[in-house]
Amino acid sequence: MSGGPPPVPGRRSSEDREAARKLREARRSGMSDGASAEAPPAEQPPGSPRRPRRGPRPRVGRLLALAVVVLAIVGVAWFALKLFQPFGADGKGEVRVVIPRGASLGDIADQLEQEGVVDSSTFFALRARIAGRSGELKPGPYNFQGEMAYTDVLDALEQGVPPNVVRVTIPEGRSRAEIAPTVRRLKGNYRRATRRSRLLKPSNYGAEGATSLEGFLFPSTYELRKGRPVRRLVDEQLRAFKQNFAKVDLAYARRRNLTPYDVLTIASLVERETAAPRERPLIASVIYNRLTNHTRLDIDATTRFAVGNWTEPLKVSELQNPSRYNTRVHSGLPPGPIGSPGLASIRAAAHPAKTGYIFYVAAVCGNGKHKFAETDAEFQRYVADYDRARAKRGGKSPTNC
């Protein structure tokens, strides 16, 4: 037995006190060195699993969340800037746009974007709908600027064409004689004003013997102030012609030894012979083929131009009119255009479809369309079908059903 006093229950031994003292000193030493004040972990019994040390808390998730928030804020800000344009938009240059009657908001927005008036048709249409301004947009010709603010464009479209403005619409294919009565609200004589102009010389297009500006008066809708001279309208038509004709590739026609004036003449015939866009290159191909075969064109529109009869049935005496414009009497092209064609017909005349067609006949119940034939036998069958249908109608045209 030991010679020392027995241990007292509940009282720490000298060894315990010494261990506690050392622990306190260790704690004080750790805190003074900037270490954690947390007590060191108790020694684990042998064989027990070690606890994994806890590393720094993960920050990747928080960074991703922050990035998503920032992107969302940037996206909302961009959307708001595009839609509401708080800093406005500076217009550039002058852009003439004709809004057709009955056009929807989507059609108007697309047209304005294509013409460069607004930078986005989607945002323009959305802005109009949000502002409740989509139902009062008026048709007509407008002089806008490029890259305008949406609100400025909407203001103009809601106001419409000013009341002191004369709006003149020149249909495609019409001759000078047909246009003249429609421009009486302007001062002057249209036919006299369209004989010649300092803005355009027909000889520059291969028209050495042209006696007027027939064919060069581009069809469109024009806006002029009331009381302005008709010469202003003619000047605008000639400028529009130059701008549009410059877009046409004439390489194919040149290879066929055709001048720009020949192309314009063919285009005026195409414009009068069909209103169906798909048929324009086909009609042009028939004209090219008949010219190559030295076959008379036999186009009634040329006879009507020669005799000035655009509405009534042609008489035998009119069909035999000796005018050089009458292709039922004379071979080849007429001396010049019989009206002013639009851009689509000019392009078809410059580069027709490649076909073997040399005939075409108005289709029964075709509503303006035609049947095309490569042989006379096929052509005669179509003519017989047409004549039978007309006879059933008491002599009336069977084309519209």
List keywords for this structure.
single chain, mainly alpha, two-stranded antiparallel sheet, 42% helix, elongated
Characterization of this structure:
The protein has 401 residues and is mostly helical. The protein is 42% helix and 8% strand. It contains 15 helices and six strands. The protein has helices at 14-32, 60-84, 105-114, 121-130, 150-159, 176-179, 190-193, 230-245, 251-255, 260-273, 280-292, 300-307, 316-319, 343-350, 376-392, and strands spanning 92-99, 140-146, 165-169, 221-225, 359-362, 370-373. The protein is elongated. Residues 32-42 have low confidence and may be disordered.
Layout: helices, strands, pairs:
Elements: H1 14-32, H2 60-84, E1 92-99, H3 105-114, H4 121-130, E2 140-146, H5 150-159, E3 165-169, H6 176-179, H7 190-193, E4 221-225, H8 230-245, H9 251-255, H10 260-273, H11 280-292, H12 300-307, H13 316-319, H14 343-350, E5 359-362, E6 370-373, H15 376-392
Antiparallel strand pairs: 1-2, 3-4, 5-6
Task: Please provide a brief summary of the model.
With 401 residues, the chain is mainly alpha-helical. It has helices at residues 14-32, 60-84, 105-114, 121-130, 150-159, 176-179, 190-193, 230-245, 251-255, 260-273, 280-292, 300-307, 316-319, 343-350, 376-392; strands spanning 92-99, 140-146, 165-169, 221-225, 359-362, 370-373.
